[in-house]
C-alpha cells in the first residue's frame, strides 16, 4: 500500500524512534497521523509542528480499555505502527527480576498483540492496510546482557508471523522490523555500531510500499541476519561471550 495518503497510528510516538516515525510519515505524505502516548501532553511540541495532520492521542497498550477506546475512536486507521516497547537490560539468571521481565512481556508481547487484535477489524474495514511491528535482531539471537527483552521480542516476532498468516485473507500486510542497535531512544547511550533512526523508519515505510514482510535496517542487522542464515551457532556463541567480557 502507499504511505502517501495513509491514515497512520503510531504507538510510543513520544519516544526516541517514535518521533522519527512521525517525521517519516509526515515527509512521506501520510494524510493523518494519530500519535499515541501514555501522556499525550508529551506530544505537544511534536503536534505543534503540523497540527492539521498530527493528532496526539492517549494510549496505553497494556490497558485493554485504552486500546479498545482507540480502535473505536480512530476507525479510519489503515496503517498501524506498533512502535512502543520497553527494555531493562536484564540478565536472566544474574538479575532474575521478574517484575521487570513481566513489564517487558506485557508491553512488548501482549501490548503489541492487543493492538493488532483491536485494530484488525479496523484495518479490514479500511481495505486491509498494514501493521508494522517494531522488533529487534535480539528477537532472533539472544544477547545475554539484555536477555529478557530479547525473549519478549522473540515472542512478539512469533506473534507477528501468526498474525500475518491469520490476516492474509483480509489483505493486511504485517511487517516485522528488526534493526540492530539504533542511535535513539533506549540505545542512545550505547556504543556504535548503530543505525540512524531515520534509516530504520525509511526502511520500514518502504517495506509497506513494497510489501516486504521482514525488514533488517542498517548494516549491523543485515550482517547479523546473513550470519544467522549461514551459521546460527557461531553468532549465538559470539553474543554469549559478551557476558564475560
Ligand atoms: N533503540 C534501539 O536500539 C532499538 C533497537 C531495536 C528495536 N527497538 C524497538 O523500537 C521501539 C522504540 O524504541 P526506542 O528506542 O524509541 O525506545 P524509547 O525511546 O524508550 O521509547 C519507547 C516508547 O514506548 C512507549 N511505551 C512504553 N510502555 C508503553 C505502554 N504501556 N503503552 C504505550 N506506550 C508505551 C514509551 O512511552 P512513555 O513515554 O509513556 O514511557 C515510549 O514512547 C521499541 O519497540 C524498541 O524495542 C529499539
From TrEMBL:
SUPFAM superfamilies to which the protein is assigned, alphabetical: NAD(P)-binding Rossmann-fold domains (SSF51735)
Protein family per UniProt: Belongs to the short-chain dehydrogenases/reductases (SDR) family.
InterPro entries: NAD(P)-bd_dom_sf, SDR_fam
Protein name listed in UniProt: SDR family oxidoreductase
UniProt keyword terms in alphabetical order: Oxidoreductase
Coiled coil segments of this chain: none
Pfam families referenced in this protein's UniProt entry, alphabetically: adh_short
Organism annotation: Trichocoleus desertorum GB2-A4
Domain of life per record: Bacteria
Amino acid at each position: 500500500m502507499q504511505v502517501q495518503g495513509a491514515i497512520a497510528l503510531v504507538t510510543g510516538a513520544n519516544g526516541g524512534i517514535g518521533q522519527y516515525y512521525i517525521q517519516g510519515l509526515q515527509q512521506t505524505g501520510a494524510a493523518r497521523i494519530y500519535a499515541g502516548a501514555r501522556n499525550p501532553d508529551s506530544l505537544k511540541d511534536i503536534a505543534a509542528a503540523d497540527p492539521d495532520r498530527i493528532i496526539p492521542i492517549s494510549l496505553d497498550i497494556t490497558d485493554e480499555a485504552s486500546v479498545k477506546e482507540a480502535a473505536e475512536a480512530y476507525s479510519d486507521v489503515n496503517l498501524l505502527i506498533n512502535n512502543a516497547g520497553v527494555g531493562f537490560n536484564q540478565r536472566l539468571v544474574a538479575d532474575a527480576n521478574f517484575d521487570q521481565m513481566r513489564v517487558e512481556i506485557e508491553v512488548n508481547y501482549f501490548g503489541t498483540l492487543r493492538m493488532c487484535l483491536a485494530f484488525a477489524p479496523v484495518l479490514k474495514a479500511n481495505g486491509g492496510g498494514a501493521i508494522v511491528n517494531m522488533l529487534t535482531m535480539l528477537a532472533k539471537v539472544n544477547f545475554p546482557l539484555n536477555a529478557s527483552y530479547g525473549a519478549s521480542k522473540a515472542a512478539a516476532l512469533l506473534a507477528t508471523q501468526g498474525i500475518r498468516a491469520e490476516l492474509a485473507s483480509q489483505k493486511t500486510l504485517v511487517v516485522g522490523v528488526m534493526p540492530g542497535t539504533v542511535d535513539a531512544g533506549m540505545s542512545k547511550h550505547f556504543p556504535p555500531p548503530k543505525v540512524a533512526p531515520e534509516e530504520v523508519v525509511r526502511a520500514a515505510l518502504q517495506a509497506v510500499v513494497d510489501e516486504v514482510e521482514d525488514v533488517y535496517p542498517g548494516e549491523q542487522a543485515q550482517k547479523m541476519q546473513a550470519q544467522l542464515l549461514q551459521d546460527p551457532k557461531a553468532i549465538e556463541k559470539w553474543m554469549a561471550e559478551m557476558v564475560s567480557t
